[in-house]
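Board notes (copied after class):
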Amino acid sequence: MNEMMEYFEQEEGTDVKAFLFRLLSKWHWFVLCGFIGLVASFLITRYSLPTYKMDSTILVHEESNGMESLFEGFDMGGKTNIQNHIGILKSYNLNRQTLENLNWRTTWFTEGVFGDGDLYGHEPYEVVETPGYANLEGIPVNIQMLNGNSFKVSVDGEAMVNGRPQKVEFEGQGKVGELFQNSYFSFTLKGNVKELEDVFFKFNNQSKQTLAYLDKLVVSLTDKKADLIRLQLVGNVPAREVDYLNELNRVYIQFGLREKNRTSLNTVRFIDQQLEGVVDSLQVAGQNFTAFRSKNKVLDFGQEATLVMEKVEELEKEKSMAEMRLEYYENLYRYVGDASQMKQMVAPSVVGITDMGLNALVVKLSELYSKREVLSYTVQDKNPSLVVLGKEIQHTQKSLEKNLENLLSNANIEVKSINKRMNQINAQVSHLPQTEQELINIKRSFDLNNELYTFLLQKRAEAAIAMASNVPDAQILDVARVETAIKVGPKAALNLLVGLILGLGLPFLVIVLKDYFNDTIKSKEDLERECKLPIFGEIAHNGYKKEMPILEHPRSGIAESFRGLRTNLQYLFNEKGSKVIGVHSMIPGEGKTFSALNLATIIAMDNKKVLLVGCDLRKPRLHQIFDFANTKGLSTFLIKNHNLKEIITPTKIQNLSVVNSGPIPPNPAELIGNGEFKRFIEEAKNEFDYIIIDNAPVTLVTDGMLTSKYADANLFVLRQGYSHKDQVKFINQMAEKESIKQVGIVLNDAKHRGSGTYGSYGNGNGYYEEDNDSKGWKEKLIGRFSKN
């Protein structure tokens, strides 16, 4: 990207203008691609499935756990963390539970052009899976009705089989109401027989379904200062998305209420378990007490027995409560580090514990465990908030453990003290009559169970009242409704705009990339930046498709460009005498022969005697252009088979003669370097004012390098849009090393756009348009040359 930016920073001024002209020159591609983009976007808009947006709103109240009656004296309320509620709504567990409740195991579709239509609410049949059979998920099962209640099943796709993708393809037949089974599927279609065309169904993977809904479910605050949460879904079937939103709301409300009722439910469950044993003991004690009094005709105790009985009952009650507290401390101490077990623990007040410090720590630890559970739905394990919460839980656990250690020690001391006092009372009981002793023991058991039963019933009633008074922390203000769905797509205007932009952008991108990766010479300015040598001329683009367009179009732009080259060369040659001009190219196809031929012609038209020499002894072309036999020429001169006069052939062009290359020799470079070429040049100078040498490409052979030392000027022809910039660097290096002297550049096939130097030259238009009588002038001069 940086290289491309540097490229465009270099392409300033004239080149930026040239680039714009190149874009304009491809206007037809922009029109075509823009039209295609518009048509494509129109078709997509026309045949795409519409999309709708559904939403619902939830009001979150200030949190309250509903256990104030069980934790008297403590502030159990708290400020609502609205982000926690948003996280819960976006949690995987709640959304998975929502899909399980909806039971969207299968989905029916109808085939469409740009998407398959969901038949939610209009399913043609109910698909009943065979229990214990795992059907392939996510692969279309095509159903086509046949005669009667028969149908054809066809599957062609890829599915996961034993954890690996596998091609699945088969056809089969089944009947409505009967089991269809093969190695991939086992199901039954139930319902009334219907005519079906282009319909299919899929077995859904609930994990993927959950992730898909999590991806498109949007949960956000309606306002930063409000406790209102908005849930939004966008889909093709409003009824499906409405049902999902409403079920998610219901699952969310149930989740919150279940968490608030957890402590109350645990308390009721604990008390019910205790009551089961107390009721049985109370019934047995009551029956024993009644039976004993009836049997022994005892109605009441004596005065001493009554006093002893009161003390015994008081101590039994104290012992029962002390042992209950001790058991609670032991269980709590054992479960402090286990969050799941802590959820099952009842409130301390249920067992008659009124220790303020213990109550505070139990409440705090329970709240911290709940916060960690809620926070784990929305953040990763290494999240700073979760880490801080974990450290706070550890600190609270240690504080609670230390508190419990003290309470356990005190509780054990209290039980021992009660047992000691009980022993003393039992000693007093032993002095009473045997009947009163037995009655005291029976009544003591009855009274103890009766008081415990009353106590537990009272606590159960409190827990039930607390649970009944719980209300959800959230309230659904607006349920999702199909009639309130808003159509959000496809957006015709936006699609058309995007289609137009993409259509126009495609040719632009192609042109830019082609221009960026194109290292050819694009203009004279481009050449001037790379070249350290003089540029003697620009040869206009040959729009006439002829070898010598200057003959038939002497007033055209291309003819004027060769006149400009001729003038520049005349300024170069200050000394009198014959001049030798070598015309070179780096690679074939750059227009070397074309430039040499037309340069020789334009100089000859200036009343100068010109000899055009075909020095390309490997792939000669001059004899083809002039339709000469190539039986003799430079090669035969170099081997001394002919003299100069014998190989010179006059042309129909006044003052222009040609020396063909002659038959192709096996050793062109050796012939040119044997010394005879120097004699050829010296003899030709005596006969002609200008000698134009058409050489072989320099990078392919060394022939041009050998002839260049006899030239007064060596012109390298580079073709715009064809020659590469590396070639210019190579020419610069040859000039610096003086491998070739008097080097100059000629830019061939120059195309100027807009208000360029030559206008739209080469086409016979504009400033260089020829006169009506020019054709007659040309015929008088040379006749007509046809294209070879």
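Comment from the instructor: The chain has 25 helices and 22 strands. The first helix runs from residue 2 to 10.
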